[in-house]
Amino acid sequence: MAEETAPERSTAEETAPGRSTAEATPPVPGHGYERYAGGSPEAERRLFERLARELTRVQAVTRRAAGGGSLARTFHAKAALGMENARLRFRDDLPAELRHGFARPGAEYPATVRISNASGARQADGTADLRGLAVRVVVSGEESHDLLATNWPVSHAKDAREFVAFARAMAGARTRLQAAVGLFVKLPLAVGPATARRMRRTVLAGTRHTVESLAAETYWSRGAILWGTAGPVRYLLRPAGGAASAPRPDRRDPNHLRRDLERRLATADIAFDLCVQRYVDEARTPVEDGSADWREAVAPALPVARLTIPGQDLDTAEARAAALRVEDLTFNPWYTTEDFRPLGNLNRARKAAYEASAAHRQGLRFLTEEPLRNRVLSVPAEAAFRLLNRFVPWHRLPTRASLLNLLFLRKELRRANLVDTDVHEAPPRAVPVPRPPDERLRTARSYDGTYNDLSAPAMGSVGAAFGRNLAPVHRPDTFDTPNPVTVSRELLHRETFLPATSLNVLAAAWIQFQVHDWVNHRRHPAGTKTVEVPLPSGMSWQNTPGGPAERVMRFAENESLPVPDGRPPLFGNTASHWWDGSEVYGENETTARSLRTPGGGADLRLEGGHLPTGRDGAPLSGFTDSWWLGLSVLHTLFAREHNAVCAALRQAYPSMGEESVYHTARLVVSALIAKIHTVEWTPAILATEALDIGLHTNWDGPPDKWLDKLGLWLFESQALTGIPATLPDHHGAPYSLTEDFITVYRMHPLIPDDFELREHHFGQRLETVGFLDINGTAAEGVLRKTGLANTLYSFGIAHPGAITLHNFPRALTRFERDGELIDLSVVDLVRTRRRGVPRYDDFRAGLHRPRLRRFEDLTENPETLARLKDVYASVDEIDTVVGLLAENPPTGFGFSDTAFRVFILMATRRLQSDRFLTVDFRPEIYTPLGIDWVRKGSMNTVILRHCPDLAALLPRTATAFAPWRRVPPQPTP
């Protein structure tokens, strides 16, 4: 059910990397020297993101070529030296024009140094290669500067495209023959013969240069950086006054360059002069072209500082430990300040590329590689199904053919219908060195959804923006066309209760229970910023209980996020986007801790097995807006389930502390909820054999039948294991739930207007209540009086409403909330329009369904047709909510095929993106007991654990969301 809750301020203030308003800020110094690929910073950013993904694939190829093992750096994999106790001291006579920021006469700073071979493979030092030097200068706890240089003055690539093309051509080359194939075959095919020749010349010249000692080499930045008001510079580090003497190394030793440094540092310091070459003009000192040499005759190298690596024994335990710490570091030229920001195409690309490579290497980001057979065979198969679907819809095909059809439909939706709404940095900006993730968050969900993706901490967290499955259509001139009140009265309002006979009311309560975990738009406080909907002629509305009759319907407007000019509104989620049980546990640490037993206990607070209540009579739980008896039942049930898991963990692992017990139990309960929704609730509402198989495959992998497994092996082998056994995959867009997803989950028709409460032992009627009698603070009293088992039974034998037109609950068409009197059916229409969700015909076309040509293409019901034609001037005006409810769904479906397309995309995405439901769904994180609890658990096991008397009433061969066995009324003893 769609969310509509009270205004609430999030406690999470952190914003995601790449979620700034950089596009809206004025240019920073240095931009006048730069030219952006694609014509704009944003176009270039999108290109660089693709190139960064390519480099991550290169990293994986290199790893495979090396025989597996841990991931190495994409480049500079083998270190000869890693040291934390170096010093960088600026000269006392530093030229006045170069005095800026940390560059001050006589200023001295600690520095970390890494010297390495340039290859992505750890190979013998005598192999032809370039060498690199990386320095981190630490100015303060908040400021540092990474300097990266290579022992050849120019790059083989003038821009990022060439750099990645070369990396791909040479990926995995471990022999001379493989390298030759890369240089002379793959590279010309990628960049053209002339460019390939120029790149080969540079590479061969650099790698054929004989390196006797890394201490005697000069290292050039090759790309420019800004040096404050002095403008662009390139820098280089050259041996200070000649390198200290040392015996000639034995080049047969595969580590002879390391041995040379050991011998030198055993007797003396090693020092390099940091020199800068100042920009002259674009012709002689170009900023954008990394392959151009800034010749010293044109741009003299001016010494500005000295880097000193102190003499020491590198074979001590302390030195080895320091070297290991340096290996764990990630160097990035963008770890600096804006006054010293990198310049030029190659440097701008390095931010995304280095971040992606480092995150992949450190296990913070993952790469799912699609086998070649899947990529090749999917193309003709997908085209064949696309042609077939013009004549036969997927749901009318035989079961296995329809499953394959859905597989290819999901691939198409992933390519076309994951719209990145983040406001990214464009152009990139300098940043401090990121702090490593809190180690506790590697094994526990955070309170606010941060650090699920450890490489993008704010992804999917509280406050993160809703994404899109379709490009938004923001048309203020059509917000009131046609009048949403007219649409609601004619097409949505319930006239006669239409039941969904294959489900029970628990299914209705469940989806609201889930939506409260997933999505919630923040609203302005009532009476401040409002939406005003004009009323049809002759109609009036009271906007507050007991208030005056008015000619407009008024309710609180959603708060939007700041966006650059020209972009449609963007809205933040006050819930986390992850499937983390936040409706039970809360969206911030303060709430979560307040719900636990006093003294830091792991259990959730209960009073006689029921939720405690606050001073206002409202229950205390993670999310209690729009509260009614159905939510009270499920929140109580899963609070008890949490405590049951805690008790089992304490018994199995007596040494486990209460904090670990709490977080482990939360992981277990959240995963169990996700499993129940995936393999029980969804197959109940989409009751077809194909969907039942498909959804169980999502969680457990395919049936143990050779034909099913062969199909997946050929076309999508990742699905052979079930999503919990795979790696996280965001499929090219930052993870978030979407505005379109919210629209298809507007399932308010499921709610009946009245309920009969019965006793489960003898089938006796206890009372009949209306929805408003079990709403808000009244719900808890009814649950305690009726009892959890009786209430579950009453819901289990009753049907919810069908998700169709003319079935919106009467109780919700005049509903008091936060001092406002609202018609929620009108609110649903208005919210969808104002949030930019395309109208129905565009919505279905965007999801790869044929457009409507006439109203008869939507429905054949004569009364509905007449009303549609009366309300809408054309099929293009039909509201998305109305069209979804008007569709004739496939046989067995509880909602439309169009809505299902958003579902098939997002249902797997919610699992696939979540670290705790993929790579970290394992005994080491959940405990063996926790994994077993989820694997064996179901809605039935949860109900029976806490209400064992209901065992004989639950369906024998169906889920707990199907109608239960009724107890014939009989006299009580």
Automatic annotation (TrEMBL):
SUPFAM superfamilies reported for this sequence: Heme-dependent catalase-like, Heme-dependent peroxidases
Signal peptide bounds: none
Any Gene Ontology biological process: response to oxidative stress
Alphabetical UniProt keywords: Dioxygenase, Fatty acid biosynthesis, Fatty acid metabolism, Heme, Iron, Lipid biosynthesis, Lipid metabolism, Metal-binding, Oxidoreductase, Oxylipin biosynthesis, Peroxidase, Plant defense
Keyword Hydrolase applies: no
Cofactor: Ca(2+)
Region annotated Disordered, chain positions: 1-41
Name of the protein this chain belongs to: Catalase
